Amino acid sequence: MIDVAVIEALKTLVEPGKVLTDAASLEAYGKDWTRQYTPAPSAIVFPKTTEQVQAIVLWANEHRVALVPSGGRTGLSGAAVAMNGEVVVSFDYMNQILELNVTDRTVRCQPGVVTKQLQNFAEENGLYYPVDFASSGSSQIGGNIGTNAGGIKVIRYGMTRNWVSGLKVVTGKGDILELNKDLIKNATGYDLRQLFIGAEGTLGFVVEATMRLDRAPKNLTCMVLGTPDFDAIMPVLHAFHGKLDLTAFEFFSDKGLARIMARGDVPEPFATKTPFYALLEFEASNDEIANEALATFEHCVEQGWVIDGVMSQSQQQLQNLWKLREYLSETISHWTPYKNDISVTVSKVPAFLNEIDAIVSEHYPDFEVVWYGHIGDGNLHLNILKPEDLPKEEFFAKCATVNKWVFEIVEKYNGSISAEHGVGLVKRDYLEYSRSPVEIDYMKAVKAVFDPNGIMNPGKIFTV
Q1: Residue 278 β-bridge partners
Q2: Domain 336-437's class?
Q3: Would you place residue 399 in the very low, low, confident or very high pLDDT band (cuts 50, 70, 90)?
Q4: Which residue among 25, 245, 346, 374 is least crowded, i.e. fewest CB within 10 A of its CB?
Q5: Over the stretch 401-413, which tens digit does the pLDDT of each residue have?
Q6: Long-range Cβ contact pairs of 117-125 (< 8 A, separation 24 or more)
Q7: pTM score > 0.90 for this model?
Q8: What region holds the FAD-binding PCMH-type domain (predicted)?
Q9: What is the CATH number of domain 97-215?
């Protein structure tokens, strides 16, 4: 742990009371939503300004203290875990929306702004921030940038990366950089902004971000369709994608729906039971588009791809249908699931899922598997639920074997071991399944330039 005198020096860099060392704070701020690590930071520090963040980084370099960034702590990769005496830098107090530019459709904000806060601000001003996911009510913009968060609207709007117009960062050396200066067109060499997006705080800390906004969508409408098997979902996607500009295309299995129905607070979409369900969303801005959607639904039924379905007729029904998908992660968290966030190109999804499902079913027939994900962009979420009577340590040990098999299939299909959750600690030892040794060497070299003393979130993404 860090010497007391060094911690006292840290306290002089921020406002009184903004360095915490009590056991409850260390426990709360030293972890994210992963459950297999024991948090053990030395202190939590709460800066309020860019200058304070810079002072903290310079202090950390002087004393060779490791720093771990902390936002909403909703991550699933262990990127915000501090378990080796690090100092956690929480951005909870850097939570201001600083400037709206209606002409440019941009908003400048601090990293601690909660995703939902930004979405609501955009809506209040007649605009739209489209990056959305189940944790939007607690995740923070800085964390979204650090992991290049995706979510449920990627098929139409892309990842967080697509919405970052400019960044102000404090590098691991303590330098302040303004990256891209919010420009749409900027052909002046390397775009260092892109390096910080998805870097999980390993190069430096984002202290301001200018995020792009879009026009507000009109009359969003949702359909939930029951399919006879997973293979039928892909022709359904092709059929609707060819007729409509989809804003989302999700899927989930019957096991996932059963867990949602057991909650008792979400209406069942329709009485017919099917093995898999597709959820799609589009803008029904006129009757012609709505009629096209119904005609496409009827075509899918005639082809045998869809057994039953429902289309939202109100904002409340739209929200209820989305709960079938958005509540899944929270609902199954009771069973301490082994979670995997993997992706391939969309055309390879059926064969990819079938191979993984076959391996898990063969080797762990007693484990319940819940599938769901963003099928429209090739991102699958594999969730293996822990049996009630199996100790957590034994369960995760068994799942470590699953990891190797799953990632070998990912490598075979030229996919990604982490589609949107980042690498952190959870995927660090498997990075070679998605990145070549030469690529990893280049990544390490980039980190050494920005963080020569190795103080920025060390041990995440890769070991140095």
Answers
A1: 225, 251
A2: alpha beta
A3: confident
A4: 245
A5: 888 899 999 999 9
A6: 118/211, 121/97, 122/213, 122/216, 123/216, 125/100
A7: yes
A8: 37-216
A9: 3.30.465.10
